[in-house]
From TrEMBL:
Residues 702-748 form the SDA1 C-terminal domain. Residues 678-690, 731-751 have a biased composition (Basic and acidic residues). It is found in: Nucleus, Nucleolus. Its main location: nucleus. This is Protein SDA1. PANTHER family: HSDA/SDA1-RELATED, PROTEIN SDA1 HOMOLOG. It holds the Pfam family SDA1_HEAT. Required for 60S pre-ribosomal subunits export to the cytoplasm. The lineage of its organism: Eukaryota, Fungi, Dikarya, Basidiomycota, Agaricomycotina. One of its GO terms (cellular component) is nucleolus. Residues 61-171, 197-449 form the SDA1 N-terminal domain.
């Protein structure tokens, strides 16, 4: 230990290196520095400006070697946390950054737990004014939670963090709703600035949205946190929470991936031309260009509703009623944009869960005028709120209002098309909301000269040919509808349903398939019931099971007709006459009295329903191959649509867009900005103002030669050129000289 005698106590990096090599031998030196840190800390609490640099060095030194002396430094993390939380306003920016970084270092060295770190970082987010420190804290929080849930879900940490976020949102719920319009908009700040601005709640919502978007939290608890934010008195918290459910995050600061602007494509090409050429630069450039193109495409892609979050709402009826109460109570304080956001969320919750908030239809009637701002969005919200359980009595006045305001000769063709399309979307979900006389008047617009109006009226006519042709006149019903009515087919009135459901359609296929699997397992190995029970719980969810796709493919290949497997012991079922192949193969049991007991003896998982749908698709395919007819084809199309809906969420008819309301429109003349944007789009991927003609497949880039250009000149232009006219006027002597010169050049070229 010759170097120990010359060790300077002020040389902290050298002492740090020696302590990490041999902590026991240098314990006295560490205790000396620890006592020095303790005295400096007490002075620093009284006067933060005194010896701030030396204090930061001591904090960094102790953080580096804290894992070597856990007993002596057990109170060190609490010292840093207390300084940050209690004296944050008096600390310099460098000191704040050092304390936060050392807290994160202690977490990386497992000196403190994730919960202790997050309890210190969460209160700092709304208080810090430094963008770099705020970004560092946010990134640290997200990465720490992601790492903790990387292999398996850390339920203890998730519950603790969700409780903190829920408390942050709930803290300012008792305040008065300020609104973004009216007198209270310019109200002065209250005594508690944080509660007034809602920074705590805003950051809680932002972090929850980010963790949901990254797939770290996918259960109902984060949805409950954001759902509580929809009723926060601060408008920006409300807006951020509503955008989460709508799936249209307009706030760029909500996503750390969207903070950075995309790379400049022109600058990348310029840098490649100017800088030194290296081997991997072309691949790097292409990678950056692909990333920029993908980011630009994702930015312009249409947004889709957050359907899983809507389905995970706790008590959606109460949530919808509170949304409407919030909308109607503060109607004077909310701006039109914010009210439309609430309408869209309320309508989607009503449509997804088939809820009835009848007061919403009386509220929205006052906005159903053709001169109303943002009226397409309001019409979309109205249509999405309707479903087959909505009472027609509540919708009939709305349909009459739409027809009176939008469909009459005093408005333009675009307004008429939007009105008829809106009525069609409402009646598609609840056909009994239409009156017979009004339907006849609206269908007459199919003879209009405007294409959009004609398409809208024909769509309404086609809809009622399918759902209720009895409301149409005889000549307007069409062939198929007339044949169906002659056979006695009538739609069920509102409130009536078909025969009571006694079984799940096609469940016998699944029961036969599982029975066959059990018999195969018992034939190969004598396993007890425990193995069957364990195998039954495999693949609980379709998305989380990694082998579900391969298993589903295997399931599809298994024969589902049950020719070699006898499940029932009933003689009547065995002796019953077989049905035609189209019905037997399409998943319809030959004996309609046979009811599967699988639903009462086993919990059907999402994987079971996916398997059931695949078995029914296979059976319908076999029915078509064996001549099942159009009925089997329609059944197959419905099953495939059901499978796509299970994979991607709701069908396209659940949520609509403004284009469905406006219908096909004539292309408007582009303005200056649109023309410039189109020109710029056409210039992407080529050199600036340069032609590629003549530059391809050449060692050195160059344009075409004059001889090549002369080949493409018009013949009349060549005949009147100076060269041709000069040849015509040339004398005999000049022609002889040119011929002799040509012969000499030809001789030289051969030798």
């Amino acid at each position: 230990m010759g170097g120990r005698g010359v060790l300077l106590t002020s040389n902290l990096p050298q002492l740090q290196n020696l302590i990490k090599r041999d902590p026991v031998s240098y314990k006295e030196e560490f205790l000396q520095q620890w006592n020095h840190y303790d005295s400096i800390r007490q002075i620093f609490q009284i006067n933060p400006d005194e010896q701030a640099q030396h204090f930061r060095e001591l904090v960094s030194f102790i953080s580096q070697v804290a894992q070597c002396y856990p007993k002596e430094t057990k109170d060190f993390p609490s010292h840093l946390s207390t300084l940050l939380l209690e004296n944050y306003g008096t600390l310099t920016p460098d000191t704040r950054k050092t304390l936060v970084q050392n807290l994160v270092m202690l977490r990386n060295k497992d000196v403190i737990t994730s919960i202790e770190l997050l309890k210190s970082l969460f209160p700092l987010l709304p208080r810090t004014t430094s963008s770099t420190l705020r970004a560092f804290i946010r990134k640290t929080i997200l990465s720490d939670i992601r790492t903790a849930n990387l292999r398996t879900k850390n339920h203890k940490l998730n519950r603790a963090v969700q409780a903190m976020l829920f408390t942050m949102v709930e803290r300012g719920m008792d305040a008065e709703v300020i609104g973004d319009k009216g007198k209270l908009r310019s109200a002065g700040p209250t005594s508690d600035k944080t509660a007034n601005n809602g920074e705590d709640a805003m950051w809680a919502v932002i972090l929850t949205k980010e963790l949901w978007r990254k797939g770290i939290w996918t259960d109902a608890k984060p949805v409950s946190i954001v759902a509580l934010g929809c009723f926060h008195p601060v408008m920006k918290v409300q807006s951020a929470s509503i955008h989460f459910f709508l799936g249209s995050d307009d706030e760029k600061e909500d996503s750390d991936d969207e903070d950075e602007e995309g790379p400049d494509v022109r600058a990348l090409h310029h840098r490649r031309e100017v800088n030194k050429k290296r081997r991997g630069d072309d691949k790097k450039l292409q990678k950056q260009l692909n990333a920029a193109k993908k980011k630009k495409y994702n930015k312009n892609a249409p947004t889709t509703p957050n359907f899983p979050a809507l389905q995970l709402l706790n008590d959606p009826q109460t949530f919808a009623e509170k949304l409407y109460d919030n909308l109607s109570r503060y109607d004077k304080r909310f701006s039109l944009e914010h009210k439309i956001l609430i309408m869209q969320l309320l309508s989607r919750v009503m449509g997804a869960h088939k809820l009835c908030v009848l007061s919403f239809y009386t509220y929205i009637v006052k906005y159903l005028t053709y001169h109303q701002l943002r009226v397409p969005s309001i019409l979309v919200a109205l249509a999405q709120s309707v479903h087959d359980l909505t009472p027609p009595d509540a919708l009939t006045p709305v349909v009459q209002k739409l027809a009176a305001e939008f469909v009459h000769p005093g408005v333009g063709s675009e307004v008429i098309a939007a009105g008829i399309n809106s009525i069609r979307e409402v009646c598609r979900r609840q056909p009994w909301a239409m009156e017979e006389d009004l339907l006849g008047d609206l269908i007459e617009y199919r003879r209009s000269r405007d294409k959009a109006v004609t398409a809208a009226a024909r769509g309404l006519l086609q809809l009622y040919r399918e759902v209720n042709p009895g409301m149409l006149k005889r000549r307007e019903r069409g062939k198929d509808a007339s044949i169906g009515m002659s056979k006695g087919g009538q739609p069920l009135p509102f409130g009536h349903s078909a025969d009571a459901a006694v079984d799940i359609e096609g469940l016998m296929l699944l029961e036969d398939h599982l029975q066959k699997l059990r018999e195969e397992e018992m034939g190969s190995a004598n396993n007890d019931g425990k193995d069957d029970e364990a195998a039954a719980w495999e693949g609980w969810d379709v998305e989380t099971d990694s082998d579900s796709e391969s298993e589903s493919e295997g399931w599809i290949d298994v024969d589902s007709e049950g020719d070699n497997v006898e499940v029932s012991d009933s003689e009547d079922e065995r002796e019953s006459a077989p049905k035609p192949p189209g019905e037997a193969d399409a998943g319809i049991d030959p004996n309609p009295n046979r009811i599967s007991t699988l639903a009462t003896t086993k919990i059907l998982t999402p994987a079971d329903f996916a398997l059931l749908n695949d078995l029914r698709i296979q059976a319908a395919t076999k029915a078509i191959e064996s001549g099942g007819g159009s009925k089997a084809k329609r059944k197959l199309e419905a099953l495939e649509a059901n499978r796509r809906a299970m994979q991607t969420g709701p069908s396209d008819g659940t949520f609509i867009s403004e284009n469905d309301i406006l219908g096909p429109r004539k292309k408007a003349k582009a303005d200056y900005a649109e023309r410039i944007a189109s020109i710029e789009k056409g210039r992407e991927g080529r050199e600036k103002y340069g032609s590629l003609k003549g530059k391809k497949n050449k060692e050195s880039p160059s344009s075409s030669t004059n001889r090549e250009k002369a080949r493409n000149k018009p013949i009349m232009m060549i005949l009147s050129s100076g060269a041709v006219r000069g040849k015509k006027k040339a004398s005999l002597r000049e022609k002889q000289q040119k011929l002799r010169a040509h012969i000499e050049r030809a001789k030289k070229s051969y030798h």
